Amino acid sequence: MARWTDGATIAVPTVVRRELDHLARGAVAYAHVARTLSRRYPTVPCSGEGDPAILACARRSGAILVTADRALAERARASGVDLLMPRDRAHLTRRAGLRANSGPRRPGIIIKRPRLVRRPS
After folding, report:
1. I need a labelling partner for 101 at 20 to 30 A (CA). Which of 50, 54, 62, 118 fits?
2. pLDDT, tens digit, for every residue of 23-46?
3. Residue 47 CA, distance from chain mean position
């Protein structure tokens, strides 16, 4: 991420933290790991729930959204939010938002962890 985001601050929206806490309480595989990783970064306060809250937070802060969720990525691009998406295990691809955002751009990244799904045993 450093190559694409020179001088950026990595932050996690409160809505993502709440979702990770919920998943970890439900014993979803790897939710504890994702929650622990998210605590290394500062929190961005945002109201609401789910993807709409994450998009509103990214637009408001002029942030780059990092996500592996394709549906969220397309909604973000359509609303003018720049993205970083995993191409494979070791590479990220930057995609520009489709519309110009109004207001000043501030450096920042919002990390959205994809929903963790329990694999059948």
Report:
1. 50
2. 889 888 888 898 998 899 899 898
3. 15
| DSSP state for residue 51 in the 8-state scheme | H
Separation of alpha carbons 3 and 103, rounded Å: 24
Task: Give the dihedral of Cα atoms 66, 67, 68, 72; nearest 10 deg.
Answer: -140
Q: What single-letter amino acid sits at 34?
A: A
| Count of domains forming the chain | 1
What angle do helix axes 14-25 and 50-61 make, rounded to 10 degrees? 150
Residue with token string 């000043």 = 104
In a domain, 35, yes or no: yes
Does residue 93 contact residue 85 with C-beta atoms inside 8 Å? yes
- Compute the average pLDDT of residues 76-104: 75
Range of the domain at 72: 10-111
pTM: 0.71
| CATH number of the domain that residue 52 is part of | 3.40.50.1010
